[in-house]
């Protein structure tokens, strides 16, 4: 038997969804590298401590609400790599760190959870929909002006529990990827996937990112490149550049989704509420897949005119 390989430490938030996502990544890594040991190290973030704050108050905090403590652990060599929900990562790279791999994306759509399989019955006039996302709220109002939105906070299980406790609420909006990865109890509830022409996701929604140090990153990249998905990486790059070009920190609702088309073309659709405007700007562009960064910037420029 050869010498025992040093374990690689993988950092994760401690929320049930974050741990489920990290375990999926580690399981994929173990399949590719059966002789290597991967250990998960849980790190509590500022976002975990303020999870019950209203969305408006959370938005006033730093961009790296769910990531900064984990990034510090990577920089301090306390962990070898970190697994993030890509939509939580600020669009600008933290000095000294890099995205080493982006695995294949899960379903990027949002899900409407109701108590009745017949959507026409489930959403009566003035129906109340629970969501903690300004992006979802803004797009709901485009679908039906009569819909009422109530804010909900907490992890997926907490939100489902609150929904069951409030029979006056007609629906709950959650991300399909989170439901797919966590597999919570949805007994007695109906799930309807919302098409992108009704509800565009947050840039990077459904995608994970593996982050490591730039310095001496070759060893880690050797492992994580095995689960990197170039198509997902191109798509989320376009979405995140769209967000960055529009000033993603302005706290106005911004949504985008890019998909790889035949012949290595990439289509990006985006919607944004510009500061001071009540109606959104929406558009789409198509570029070659190797022009993902330019695609995101170009679409942001086009809808800002």
Description:
By secondary structure, this protein is an alpha/beta fold. Helix content is 33%, strand content 23%. The strands form three sheets. It has a five-stranded mixed sheet, sandwiched between helices. It has a five-stranded mixed sheet with strand order 7-6-8-5-9, with helices on both faces. A three-stranded antiparallel sheet has the order 11-12-13, with helices on one face. Helix 6 links the parallel strand 6 (128-130) and strand 7. Helix 10 packs parallel to helix 11 (292-304). The longest helix has 17 residues, at 16-32. The model has no long low-confidence stretch (mean pLDDT 90).
Features:
3 domains; five-stranded mixed sheet; 305 residues; 33% helix; 11 helices; alpha/beta; Double Stranded RNA Binding Domain; D-Maltodextrin-Binding Protein, domain 2
SSE blueprint and pairings:
Elements: E1 8-12, H1 16-32, E2 38-42, H2 46-49, H3 55-59, H4 68-75, E3 81-85, E4 97-101, E5 110-114, H5 119-122, E6 128-130, H6 134-143, E7 148-150, H7 156-165, E8 171-175, H8 176-182, E9 190-193, E10 208-213, H9 218-224, H10 230-245, E11 254-261, E12 265-272, E13 281-288, H11 292-304
Parallel strand pairs: 1-2, 1-3, 6-7, 6-8
Antiparallel strand pairs: 3-10, 4-10, 5-8, 5-9, 11-12, 12-13
Helix pairs in contact: 10-11
